[in-house]
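Troubleshooting log. The previous structure file for this entry was overwritten by mistake, so regenerating from the original sequence record. Sequence copied from the archived sheet and checked twice against the printout by T.R.
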Amino acid sequence: MIRKIIQWSVIAFLTFVLVFFSVKQYQIAHPQQATENKTEISAPVDTATSSCEETSCGACPSKDNCNGKASNATIPKSDGKDEFKEASTDEFTEVSSDEFQDASATSEFEDVSASEFQDVTDTTSQAQAAPVVEEKPKVDLTKYYPTFIRFSILFILLGLISIFYHKNWIHYFRYPILLGSLIYFGFILGGCPCILVMFNDSLLLLSGKGMLWVYPTILLSIVLLTILFGKIWCGWLCHFGALQEFLFRNPRMKLWRTKRTQKILHFVQTFSFLALTIWILFAQINIVCTYDPFVKIFTFSGSGWLAYTLIGLLIISSLLVYRPFCRAVCPIGLILNWSSRLPFANKIVLDGCTGCKKCHKYCKMGSIQDKKVDMACIACGECNQSKCEGIQLK
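Regenerated output below.
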């Protein structure tokens, strides 16, 4: 009961975040309309200016400084007939030529002595000699608003899938959701933001790159939501996993579902994680986009023998093996595997398993072994086709 309350509270918070950034993005996209709305709202409230205009005319020299405090200039009301007659020609004759003669050109320039220039040069040289403190560039969050909106929608969807996971009707939406993620995040956005870039930026942030905190924050959110809702991200929302899901064409091959194979794949994934971590920390740059075969496929930008080799390896392995990248390479998948092993994490369990093994043939990941669920389980829900009541997400 407490977990359900927390889950619904998180969904409510994510909804607030979605509305907040949606409004911000709308104001950026329609600045003129937003300005007009602010003007319409603020105009009646400006009582100080209105009071100032009531007590002074448009030609008042103190009007610019009139805010209800600085100027108390008043002009008596008139009937409007003699306004232009009062200004006589004598107003212009009062300024005599002597006034201009008093301010001579020589006196003005003689006041500025050479010592003043020396003082200026001394101060400027001292300023140049002083150490310059470099200001850290600020992150422009406005360009990340669309990313925040997209991930807010995905996170809300993640929470709703987890809450209604025990309902049969929710599982009919899995492939449409994966297809939508593949089309939009994959081919429309070019695989960006890439989950591997999140891992890349997180390592760079830990190594001292203080500016790269947006994508690591999203990655941390995915980890926390996985602990709270289960590993729904991998099985339902990830566009990398969706591409492999739709490429897979060998469901009868059971070689990659054995217990021994699972151990080998876990070892390979851990080794890949360590190798990729060391490479990124030593390179100190974003190396993912340069070699990521998913980005090359989504953007149709493959060039060079290495790129074509990785693309071919990904496609061929995905045709024969169910989600090979997720099971053997993906560093985010390994992090989510570790987080799902926490005792208080929400995960798939076999409650009261009788050992009938009906669910084994439906698990393409090979995660169900000996009445237990392996940490590589992606909560895809395929095992629910066995109609086994012991399979639960809790």
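The chain has a mean pLDDT of 78. Archived copy saved in two places this time.
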